[in-house]
Design a protein that fits this description.
alpha+beta, OB fold (Dihydrolipoamide Acetyltransferase, E2P), eight-stranded mixed β-sheet, five-stranded mixed beta barrel, 14 helices, 31% helix, elongated
Length: 428
């Protein structure tokens, strides 16, 4: 019976049967050393020529990524890569590999071109395991809080975050768009379920080449009836703390492979500090001598400078109303600002969550849509939520890849998703 490499090492000694792929290989006249990998870990295996006279020529043909089944006896060996070694008694070569196209010190672009193969690397395997844990943590958090999961449509007839970033799709004899966010549909659903969430793909046709943007990404979104801005801010910080703690508990080995400084993650405890947009400008002016005109959005460089003064995520509220989406209402206490927030991750990883209260006044919604150049007829279904029993409600969206990038300490968001889609990349 085959067991995983991790299970074999936990057994510590005795007979084991494993299967996987050649991760490293080194050969001599009398010995062949194969480091075998599977999804759980790697282990060194030693094949002695005296045991394999009849197979030695076949074994000599093994290259990196050849697939094998191995039986042997495992023992501790501090010299081995993971502290254990298997003395091989039997090997079955399942599939020979050709010369692997990825060598050491390859360019980032080549690794993206060969992404279907680079996913086999220890780094990408570690990232994908952490990504899986993030998805699981999001589900567990919201379900523990009494939220219902709702799957939103991918095809939509209208914009949510501005028409300039819409992907247009032929839809029979008509046209639709790939969703930018579930929000407008979520606002309709809360009148039924009140507390809902999703973790779904979203699409933005942003002509951006930065390390923080993808054209296709996952967003964990929540919408809640009767909630104000303070309530959803609290859910947002609790969710982020929950995710980080889950990764620290479940993925310590993966964080080691990625050489992540976990001491920084261990400091992530709610509640997080809160500042207004205006206060953020003041910090940048006083501490960085950076003057930003009030009313301009914070760019990546300004967010990176701002979070230098916080060891945990920071919640920035009350951005200028004029630069916000049509559904974000003015703050009655400061009408030139909106009842909204962004959560910025520490260490310069930027925005990971955006949220707001939702405008309940149908006249102001229509005014905002017209200002953005939208056809009001396309939004009549959405406006019905204000015509029939409108209520206060709020929500937010968490960029899953942005959170994975931050937790893993990745240089580029492209490594936080298996097959990235960007302005310049649509394959493999």
């Amino acid at each position: 019976m085959f067991i995983s490499i991790k299970e074999a090492m936990s057994q510590q000694k005795g007979k084991v049967s494993i299967r996987g792929w050649v991760y490293r290989e080194r050969k001599s006249n009398k010995f062949t050393f194969l480091v075998i990998r599977d999804s759980s870990d790697i282990v060194q295996c030693v094949l002695k020529k005296e045991k394999f006279e009849n197979q030695w020529q076949d074994i000599d043909k093994l290259l990196i990524e050849s697939s094998v089944e191995i039986e042997g006896h495992i023992k501790k060996d501090e010299r081995a890569p993971t502290g254990y070694e298997i003395d091989v008694d039997k090997i079955n070569i399942v599939g020979y590999a050709e010369v692997f196209p990825i060598k050491k010190d390859q360019s980032a672009e080549l690794l993206l071109d060969e992404r279907h193969l680079w996913l086999r690397s220890r780094k990408m395997t570690a990232v994908m395991k952490i990504r899986s844990s993030v998805f699981s943590a999001i589900d567990d958090f919201f379900r523990s809080k009494g939220f219902y999961e709702v799957a939103p449509p991918i095809f939509t007839p209208n914009a949510c975050e501005g028409g300039a970033t819409l992907f247009e799709v032929k839809f029979f004899d008509d046209k639709v768009y790939l969703t930018q966010s579930w929000q407008l549909y979520a606002e309709a659903m809360i009148f039924s379920l009140e507390k809902i969430y999703c973790n779904s793909p979203c699409f933005r046709a942003e002509k951006s080449k930065t390390s923080r943007h993808l054209a296709e990404f996952y967003m964990a979104e929540m919408e809640m009836a009767w909630a104000d801005l303070a309530q959803v801010e609290k859910y947002a910080e609790e969710l982020v703390e929950f995710i980080v703690q889950r990764i620290l508990e479940k993925n310590s080995e993966e964080l080691k492979i990625l050489e992540r400084d976990v001491s920084k993650l261990e400091k992530i405890k709610a509640p997080f500090p809160r500042i207004t947009y205006t206060e953020a400008l003041k910090i940048l002016k006083e501490k960085e001598n950076l003057s930003i005109e009030w009313g301009k959005d914070l760019r990546t460089v300004e967010e990176e400078l701002l979070v230098k003064y916080f060891s945990s995520p920071v919640i920035v509220t009350n951005y200028p109303k004029e630069i916000m989406a049509f559904y974000k209402p003015s703050d009655p206490k400061d009408p030139k600002t909106a009842l909204c927030f962004d959560m910025l991750a520490p260490e310069g990883f930027g925005e990971i969550i955006g949220g707001s209260q939702r405008e309940t006044d149908i006249k102001k919604l229509i005014e905002g849509l017209k200002k953005e150049g939208e056809n009001i007829d396309n939004y009549q279904w959405y406006l019905d939520s204000r015509r029939f029993g409108s209520i206060p409600h709020s929500g937010f969206g968490l960029g899953v890849e942005r959170v994975v990038r931050w937790i893993c300490g990745l240089d580029n968001i492209k490594d936080a998703i298996p097959f990235p889609r960007t302005m310049l990349r649509k394959s493999p």
